Amino acid sequence: MKTATSNAITKRRIILIYMGLAVAFLMIAVRVVHVNTAMATKLKDYRERQSLRRINLHARRGSILDANGEVLAMDVPCQSIYAVPDEIGNKERVAGMLSQVLEHVEKDDLLKEFDRDIPFVWVKRKADDADVSAVKSLELKGVGFLDATRRVYPNDSLAANIVGFYGLDRGIEGLESTFEDSLRGEDGYVYLKKDAIGRNVPNSESKRINSINGNDLVLTIDRAIQYTAEKELAASVAEHNAEGGAVIVMDPRTGRIYAMASFPTFNPSFYEEFPKSSYRNNALSYVYEPGSIMKPVIAAAAMETGAFGEHSPTIFCPGVLRVDGFNITESHHESHGSIDLATCIKKSSNICFAKVGMTIGPDVIKKYLKEFGFGSRYDVGLNGSEPGLLPAEANWVRNSTIATVSYGHGISVTPLQMAVAFSALANGGWMIKPMLVEREETSQHKIVKEFKPQRVRRVISEETSAALRRMLAAVVADGTGKQAQIPNYSVAGKTGTAMVAVGGSYRAERRYNSSFAGFAPAEDPQFVVIAMLQNPKPYYYAGLTAAPLFQRVMMQTLLYKKIPPAASSSLSWTGDENGSEVTP
After folding, report:
1. pLDDT > 90 in the chain, percent
2. What are phi and psi of 425, to 5 degrees?
3. Model pLDDT, residue 574
4. Element (H, E) at 319
5. How far is CA 577 from CA 194, 338, 511, 560, in A?
6. 430 vs 510, residue with greater confidence
7. Is 182 left (phi over 0), alpha (psi -120 to 50) or beta?
8. What pTM was estimated for this model as a whole?
9. Alpha helices in 104-178 (DSSP H)
10. How far is Cα 101 from Cα 99, in angstroms, rounded to an integer?
11. Are 529 and 236 a contacting pair, CB within 8 Å?
12. Residue 82: CB partners within 8 Å, gap ≥ 6?
């Protein structure tokens, strides 16, 4: 009886053991399947981490070049310094030693990073050669170096407000920011086997993804002309105690911008040391009332209507004109009498243009302001472009609005808008798209994207354009723009001095913006130059401040580009000298 019972118990135990073994084998089988499927990738990565070392292959960020291939921004090789906290013995000692040899690296900040539960800490990224040498000489365990690149700007502050600057990981301002996707490229990597003590095994490459370098940007900017514009602008700001300013040099036929200078400026290599306000590009973001440089645009509109020619009809200009309860006066309180449109421009008569504007009416003025591009942003590849400000639609019913806009007040523009408008006056009447970037190309000089000169629309006739060229040449030859004269060259242009409204009042503070817009040679314009100074003092008239700045920039540009003087005989006047008088 006991034997039978014992046998039964033994059988049950054997069955249980077999069942247990079966369950165990099943669990092992499930685990094997799980390991070979769900965990395969993770285990493979773990094995690779144990036996392979990933070496990053850094892509070269694209360079930024001027029109002649001169480098404005480029990448150079450097090294970044890192630490592996688990491999550091005395963390406090190591942090102290690193902080002593590295500028802007604090001991307490490093210690906090070392004490975190992370396998890798940046000590200093994109370090210069002196820092790398200093740290290598310490021979610290747990501190290593990775190849990297550092952005450099060989010309210091030249074109800084165009180029912008690059931070640790991406472009922050200027073209460095707006063309980030094109410039940055794609990093690659390679895996090498490592031995038991962590050394790379020679010729053990197992996988490689090559880096792709970023595209280069080729600009329309000419470094020599840009240097001239910046140098002369800085000198004028200092001479006239101005708060800032802008200069643009542009080809009126193609829209290519050869120089776009802004003051104040900064050095992109040390951008942290400059106020953020210095990053601003005044040439396309500073909005101001243009004053009398707007008068040629109104003259062009008036001539296109057929109501006015160069010399007929005449306009009676007394010393004071009362419109909507306030007085319009001339800058020097003259009374010009009956004068034609050409003389109105030469003498820069406010009253004359107030009458011209009220004669042609608000609809014509609004049409041509928009046709000339005012109130619209220009996309030249940079952030910060402003549209300016046109009077509200409800205000155009007032004669005072029509009158003041006609001599450049009550409307706000940017220097770039004025450069484009004067290009249309100079080039035969065509609005052209301004260009700052010529093309994108690979590091092997294969063109990826090209930007072509583009005519947008015709705004005035060739006849009107030719008349404006003659009229504006007279302004420089014998009008308010004499300081813009260049020996042996015919120059056309217009002065503009405008009071700045402060708190809604022009009289609250005596602040002015002074501008000169012009082109040369007058008969066959090769360059348009806009020169603008913010609040020059004590002398603020554009003829004494902005015109000489224009003259120096234009003269050096003409000589640098070897432009021959044009024949002055082309400047002969045409048209009826004696016309009927018109008074609105």
Report:
1. 64
2. -65, -35
3. 32
4. none
5. 92, 12, 39, 39
6. 430
7. alpha
8. 0.83
9. 107-114, 129-138, 160-163, 174-178
10. 6
11. no
12. 120, 121, 122, 123, 143, 144, 145, 146
